[in-house]
Amino acid sequence: MFSIQRAYNLNNAIALNNDRLKREAPSVFAEVAHDSTSARYTQIPTIQVVDALRTEGWMPVLAAETRVRDASKMGFAKHLLRFRHQDELGRAFQVHDKVSEIVVVNSHDGTSTYQLHAGIFRFACANGMIVADSTLETQRVRHSGDVVGNVIEGVYSIVEDLPEVESKIERFRGIRLHTDEQRALAGAAMALRWDGVAPVVADTVLQPKRVSDRGDDLWTVFNRIQENVIRGGLRGFTHDQNGRPKRTRTREVKSVNENVRLNKALWMLADEMAKLKA
Question: How far apart are CA 106 and CA 28, in angstroms?
């Protein structure tokens, strides 16, 4: 488990050096694959991909790794890296500013191909969303052949489509949602996050954490929902084994797989709402 937010300096991100990467995600440096992988598996240490992306101007600003229960898989676990272009580093961003990122997921235990996603980071808080869009299919690179070259090619395929994401965000900003529409969007997000009965109500998921998040446009509402659902910390109620209500607080989504799944699903919900409003 890991905290997807922890490595960010919100207003002045810096490139992580190799020492920092080793502390946050040691599996990035695995020289050999786990014993469970097949003979066809080509081991390319993730650090080689990191170095190649650095050469192309994309710097790692976050590294995180899943904790594994199987001790034999320590050092081979699934890890997530977020890259920001060097031109965006050191800038003083303002509230509501956003910056494009590349998200890379990989493992060396045979449980994951290289996955490349478009990411958007919003500067009202530590919102690092992963975009799922019809123009931005997830790029997957198998552990065979020219892995590094294929990853770089996949990154540039995503970069070429980033203007489409920017255009869609501006469209979201121009769409106003009535209270019932906001609750419907929150309810759909809750169904994605929690199986069965959610521990909170839609109005709780819609609560802004800061004054700047009180807008009723789709982009602002989406960001409120995304932050509350994924970062957790919401007060609610569940029931004990005797059916009696008890207070609870929602947890942060820390799993690599679940974080990626929820981020992309929430983006798709917002996109569908935009289509309905159109």
Answer: 8
pLDDT for the residue numbered 7: 40
**pLDDT of 166:** 86
Residue 101 confidence (pLDDT) above 90: no
From residue 234, alpha-carbon distances to 217, 223, 273 in Å are: 22, 15, 24
Of residues 83 and 135, more confidence is placed in 83
Name the nearest CA neighbour of 186 among 164, 203, 161, 211.
203
Instruction: Evaluate whether residue 172 is within a structural domain.
Output: no
Cα-only R_g, the chain = 19
Q: Report strand pairing: 235-239 vs 58-65.
A: unpaired
| Whole-prediction pTM | 0.78
Are 231 and 6 within 8 A, CB to CB?
Answer: no
Q: Kind and range of the H or E element at 81? A: strand 79-85
Q: Is the dihedral of CA 19, 9, 118, 194 positive or negative?
A: positive
Expressed as residue numbers, the domain containing 73 is: 18-162
Residue type, 250: T
**87 CB neighbour count, 10 Å cutoff:** 9
Decide which of 98, 130, 162 is a domain's last residue: 162
Distance between CA atoms of residues 199 and 223, nearest Å: 20
Distance CA 6, CA 64 (A): 9
**Rounded mean pLDDT, 175-184:** 97
Helix (H) or strand (E) holding 48: helix 46-55
Residue 176: count other Cβ atoms within 10 Å of its Cβ: 12
Select from 131, 162, 193 the last residue of a domain: 162
Q: Sign (positive/negative) of CA torsion 199, 231, 172, 118?
A: negative
- Residue 212 · residue 220 · CB < 8 Å: no
Structure tokens at 213: 């998040």
